[in-house]
Design a protein that fits this description.
One of its GO terms (biological process) is iron-sulfur cluster assembly. This protein is an alpha+beta fold. The protein is 37% helix and 24% strand.
Length: 204
């Protein structure tokens, strides 16, 4: 019995020493793995006591676990934090309010353009409105096209000077603003028409 107890004690010490001397998993090896791919890490399980009283070391297969789910959650959080909320589109006005504001602006421009044409001596000057599209022809100088885009809640402008622009309603300034350049629709038209025709026009 003394010999058997001594043998068991020796086996316990050998197994415990082998477990303590096994090298830990290197963190550098796991960092080189592609993000999102299944990764394994060693679980910190201790040797258990068998039915005969002897220490039993855990098998290598049993104490490795998959950490891909943890990495997947981490990568999702990283991507979500990269979103720049400052680039989110502005909140749109309701459709009924958009039609009222856009129609008032376009009809006012039509009247001002017609009055402006009466004071000019320009061949080919013409103002036309139809199907929610306002067209201003300046003969050989070019043509302006102004129309409303209901799905975008915008007024679109095609200019022979500045090209295409899209204007959103700005409730702070009570006007239509091109968000890319901060240009105001009425002010832009006043400046360009005076540049082309040589005569000031007041659209406010």
């Amino acid at each position: 019995m003394a010999c058997s107890s001594f043998s068991k004690l020796l086996i316990r010490r050998q197994l415990l020493a082998r477990f303590r001397s096994s090298p830990p998993l290197s963190s550098s090896s796991s960092s080189s793995t592609l993000l999102g791919a299944p990764q394994l890490r060693e679980a910190s399980t201790a040797p258990r006591v068998g039915g005969d009283g002897a220490l039993v070391a855990p098998s290598r297969a049993s104490h490795w676990i998959d950490s891909s789910r943890t990495l997947s959650r981490a990568s999702f959080s990283s991507r979500a934090s990269d979103i720049d909320e400052s680039q989110a589109p502005p909140q749109s006005i309701i459709e009924e309010e958009f039609h009222r504001l856009a129609d008032d602006t376009i009809h006012s421009l039509q009247e001002k353009f017609e009055e402006y044409g009466d004071s000019l001596q320009m061949d080919g000057y013409d103002v036309d409105y139809g199907n929610h599209v306002l067209t201003l022809k300046l003969g050989s100088l070019g043509t302006y096209v102004i129309n409303k885009q209901t799905p975008n809640r915008q007024i679109w402008l095609s200019s022979p000077v500045s090209g295409p622009s899209r204007f959103d309603w700005d409730s702070a300034t009570k006007g239509w603003v091109y968000r890319r350049t901060k240009a105001k629709l009425l002010q832009l038209l006043e400046e360009e028409l005076e540049q082309l025709c040589g005569q000031h026009i007041d659209l406010s």
